[in-house]
Design a protein that fits this description.
The protein is an alpha/beta fold and 172 residues long. The protein starts with 8 loop residues before the first strand and ends in a 7-residue tail after the last helix. β4 and β5 form a beta hairpin. It has a 4-stranded mixed sheet with strand order 3-2-5-4. α4 runs antiparallel to α5. It has 6 helices and 8 strands, in the order βββαββαβαβααβα. The protein has 2 domains: 86 residues, Rossmann fold; 74 residues, 3-Layer(aba) Sandwich (Rossmann fold), CATH 3.40.50.300.
Amino acid sequence: MKERNVEANFIVTLTTRPPRFYEIDGINYRFVTEPVFEKMVENGELLEYARVYGNWYGVPRESVMQSIEAGRDAIIKVDIQGAATIKKNMPEACFVFVTPPDVSALSGRLKKRNTESVSDLELRLKTAGTEFAQLHLFDYKVLNCDGEVDAAVDDVISIIRAEKLKVCPGQT
């Protein structure tokens, strides 16, 4: 979506985990220490936050609110529990579940990525099964099939356009 210059603010989430070799601070995530993260929680600076696979992740409230106040779409990438929390705080937001077609496709992607240990991979796949069961929390589902990322991006762009055309925004 960024490559296509979609008119939106892509919110960079925070994490306390160390960056992977290919990740850039401020692009993929904002990498912070646990004390910094805890201070942000105390100060109410996060729209949502959760501990996932032993690390903290959160969405900076100010970035989202600045986007909304400027009349721009805020694109936020979160997991299921993050989406559920944001939905409670911002029920008018549009929620899109982007997913591989099935757990076996996810397994193949995670194995190819080669960033998780065998036990971490098993935990992620077990978690994915429960996440698929939470699909009802979302407004839309977009399949991200291998080799078809452009089609998934087209679908998300279509959803954004459709949401802007709604007579009663924020309703399904």
